[in-house]
Amino acid sequence: MDFRPFVRDIVDFPENGVVFKDITPLLKSPEALKAACDTLHGLIGELKIDKVVGVDSRGFIFAPMLASKLGAGFVPIRKAGKLPYKTNSESYDLEYGSGTLEIHTDAILKGEKVLVHDDVLATGGTAKAVCKLVESLGGEVVQCNFLIELTFLNGSDQLKGYQTEALLKY
Fold this sequence. Notes:
Layout: E1 8-11, E2 19-22, H1 24-28, H2 30-44, E3 51-55, H3 59-70, E4 73-79, E5 87-94, E6 97-104, E7 113-121, H4 125-136, E8 140-149, E9 164-169
Parallel strand pairs: 3-4, 3-7, 7-8, 8-9
Antiparallel strand pairs: 1-2, 4-6, 5-6
Helix pairs in contact: 2-3
């Protein structure tokens, strides 16, 4: 399926100079949603996955679906202050700001194979922070999986040493 018609550009969002890739048209189409999930699953191949990490907030859309298909657990990575239990945290820079992400300290066990999923790979700061969080708990990141990669921002440079896959590349 050609997914490009289901992604629209929103100019100057969330601030001037940014062209936001809006995936809500894809999400509202049952056929495109299912096909995107199936295709993302196909990008994983034969990798053994124990946990799928989804990044706040749009990573929460496909990550649980992928976890279900893989027979794996789902782990939410949230913005600082949103998780109720003990956490590890990691700060990061992104295309138009910075932030801090957190993971529960008991979310991943030492040696577990982890798939990191987010909607967009832009500058790579968020994904790199997530990988550090997974590794801080002893998990092994086996793939970073994205709906969209903005190749012109060179985010994959931040993820050298990790296998990365994306459904769409711009």
